[in-house]
Amino acid sequence: MTYVVRLPEVLRWSDFVKTEGKQRDPHDKQEIVALTRFRFTFPNEGFRPVTDAGKRKLVFTDKFKLTIRPVAKVWKGLDVTDSTSDAILAHEQIHYLFGFVTARALMNELLSLQVANDRLLKQHMGSALDLHLITRAKALNENYDDDTEHGHNATLQRKWQAAMKDCLADPDATYLMGQPL
User: Fold this and answer.
1) Are 93 and 35 in contact (CB under 8 A)?
2) What residue ranges in the chain does DSSP mark as E strands?
3) Contact, 23 vs 33, CB < 8 A?
4) CA quadruple 13, 175, 150, 72: dihedral positive or negative?
5) Rounded to whole angstroms, how far apart are CA atoms 57 and 50?
6) Which residue in 31, 128, 162, 166 has its CB near the most CB atoms, within 10 A?
């Protein structure tokens, strides 16, 4: 069962909001022409707590979908028809995919969660959401940009792209480039 979806599957320049000026990376303050992060929607329905062997756990229905969407900005002066823009878009795609793979890791954790009571269940859900979708996604974004020099290091960019391809192929992945999801 797939509980995490990304809309759209693949970023296009039409998914980006055009900005007057270039962006500043929130981590290292470098000037960049594009900035991509994600937002998520965790539904209030489509799951319920149940008791199994004396422990509380979550059961998700097929109607439950944790949805990842891009929050993407691009400098309006960037020529998106230029061949260099393809490399920039590929770099930004990885930023977007961090949302998907960390959300998938979150769901795997929630599916295996078993605690003594509903209070602990709610507490663990909130902690897991913050850990995966905020803390770990932020670390991945920062390390990715540091490693690839915001996509300018083509060798490391290809290494991250290959690692992401492997991660996407493994629905139970818990690490990407040695970092926890």
Assistant:
1) no
2) 4-6, 17-19, 23-24, 31-32, 34-41, 47-52, 55-60, 66-75, 175-176, 179-180
3) yes
4) positive
5) 6
6) 128
Measuring CA to CA, how many Å separate 93 from each of 69, 71, 141? Answer: 12, 11, 11
Q: Letter for the amino acid at 77?
A: G
C-beta separation of 99 from 165 below 8 A: no
3-class secondary-structure state, position 49: strand
3-state secondary structure of 73: strand
CA atoms within 13 A on the CB side of 123: 8
Residue 83: per-residue pLDDT: 81
From CA 72, how far away is CA 141, in angstroms rounded?
A: 14
Query: Tens digits of per-residue pLDDT, 151-181?
Result: 999 999 999 999 999 999 999 999 999 999 9
Distance of CA 3 to the CA centre of its chain: 14
Residue 47's pLDDT is 94
Please report the DSSP string for 132-151 in residue order: IIIIIHHHHHHHHHHHHTTT
User: Structure tokens of 95?
Assistant: 């930023």
In angstroms, the first-to-last Cα distance of the chain is: 20
Which amino acid, residue 25?
A: D
Q: What are phi and psi of 37, to 5 degrees?
A: -135, -165
